Amino acid sequence: MKLGVVLPTFRWTMEEALAKAAACAAAGIDGVFAYDHLFPMNAPERPAFAPFALLARVAHLHPTLMVGPLVARVAMVSPSQLAGEFWTLDMVAPGRVIAGIGTGDALSAKENAAWGLPVASADDRRAAIREVAQHLPDGMPLWIGGGAPATVALARDLGAELNLWNATPQDVAQAASDGPVNFAGPVPEDLGGTLDALESAGATWAICAPNVDIEALSSWRREKTL
Q1: Distance of alpha carbon 96 from its chain centroid, rounded?
Q2: Residue 16 belongs to domain spanning
Q3: Burial class of residue 12 in the structure, from the number of CB atoms within 10 Å of its CB (0-12 exposed, 13-18 middle, 19+ buried)
Q4: What does the pLDDT profile of the chain (226 residues) look like in tens digits?
Q5: Could you tell me which of 133, 143, 59 has the C-alpha nearest to residue 98?
Q6: Half-sphere exposure of 172 (CA within 13 A, CB side)
Q7: What is the pTM of this model?
Q8: Total number of domains constituting the chain
Q9: Is-contact 182 160, C-beta < 8 A?
Q10: Which domain CATH number covers 144?
Q11: 15-27 and 214-225 are packed helices; what angle lies between their axes, rounded to 10 degrees?
Q12: Does residue 9 contact residue 49 with C-beta atoms inside 8 Å?
């Protein structure tokens, strides 16, 4: 099971995110990711970095890291523009980009409203995911954020990996019976035990929130290789 970390992007400067990425690279973590939000949930007064610019910088600095948004929401830009952003990131980090895409939800819809962006129907957003998927670079891994059954069905139809946020190992195991699945979410109290359970459940990746202890992740990896 690969290990990933979400970079801290709800900040006024990039220093902390860049430092976290450097620590991940030094510790042998497999990849780093970035949220796609205009502001943190329910905190419109706070900042948020656009994911693709930050990930391009990180990918340039650390050639061992996989990079990707977690997840890029189709409601923010047109499908052609979103596909173009993945193409551009792939030019910086060929073969190291994961196309994480999602429909967004009722909570993130508040961001659209704050910026005057339309909120398409769930079916239209799923159609936009399909359009983006059809125009990604060949071979780029596609992850789709799990949610409604219709979204999960779309992921499986596209041959995409399912990205589950804050799911239990049992949920991961159930999803893994139908195809590849990965976990992302807050740092669990029992990090090592949860990672063991997720690996046993069939998760391809475990991706932790920005406040995770990088050394603890690295230690878990070292113990698995002994």
Answers
A1: 13
A2: 2-225
A3: exposed
A4: 999 999 999 999 999 999 999 999 999 999 999 999 888 887 888 889 899 999 999 999 999 999 999 999 998 889 999 999 999 999 999 999 999 999 987 667 777 777 777 778 999 999 999 999 999 999 999 999 998 999 999 999 999 999 999 999 999 999 999 999 999 999 999 999 999 999 999 999 999 999 999 999 999 999 987 7
A5: 143
A6: 26
A7: 0.94
A8: 1
A9: no
A10: 3.20.20.30
A11: 10
A12: yes
